[in-house]
Design goal:
InterPro entries: AP_endonuc_1, AP_endonuclease_F1_BS, Endo/exonu/phosph_ase_sf, Endo/exonuclease/phosphatase. The protein is an alpha+beta fold. The protein contains five helices and 14 strands.
Length: about 250
Amino acid sequence: MKLISWNVNGIRAVANKNGFSWVDEIKPDVLCLQEIKAEAPQIPEPLFTHPFTCKHINSASKKGYSGTMSFSTQTFDTTDTAWHIDHTKEGRILEHHFGDVALFNVYFPNGQQSEERLSHKMKFYSDFLAHTEALRQKGKGIIICGDVNTAHREIDLANPKANENTSGFLPIERAWMDTLLEKGYLDTFREVHGDVKDAYSWWSYRSGARERNVGWRIDYFFISNELKSKLNDAFILNKIHGSDHCPVGIDIML
C-alpha cells in the first residue's frame, strides 16, 4: 500500500492552484491531509479522479482553522477523532483501524504562539503517545503520519543553531521524539535513507526559502516496530507545490 500525508495549509487554496493533479498520477491507496481549514460542504469537488472509495473529515470548531481529512481506496473498520486527546476540538486527529493496524492522520499543535500553546503541544504529545501505546498493548500495529511540528535532529533543518530556542526545535520537543523512538517507533524516512541531509518537507514563504532549500523536516511517517518488516520505502515528494509543505509517504505491505 502507498500512503501519503500532506499538510495542505488550506485545501481550497490548493484546489484553486490545481495542486492535487499529482494524485491521479501517483495513485496513493491512502491520502491523509492536514490543516484543511474547511468544513465538509466547503471541500471543492472534484479534487482528482483517482477512485478513492471513502473519505473522512474532522474539521475544527473554529472556522477556517486546522482540520484533517483522509481518503482511502478501502473501507476502514472504524474511524474516530480521538476527542479525549484533541479536547479543544481543533480537528487534529483521524484515527483509522483496519485489521490489526491503527493509522493516525495527525496535525500536531504548533507551540510558537505562546508558553500556553507550547504547554498544550507537550500535553497533546504525551496524551497521544499514551493512547498509541495502549493500542499496541492490545496487539495493534501503529502508523502515525502528519505534521508533527518539530524537527527531530540537527540534520532535519537547514539552520539548527539559529533555531535552537524556537518552538519546533526546542530540547523539550525533540526529547519527546527521542522517547517516541525509544518506545519502539521508527522514523521511516531515516530507516530507509539513513542520515541523508537537505531532505525537508516545509519551507517558509519568506526570502525564497524553498528555492534555496532552507527548510525543516517536520512531516513524518512513524511506524511501530511490529510493522518494520513490512516497510518497503519512504519518500519526500519535494517537487510537489501548492503549500508551504510538500507530501511525504511510505510504501508498506498491509
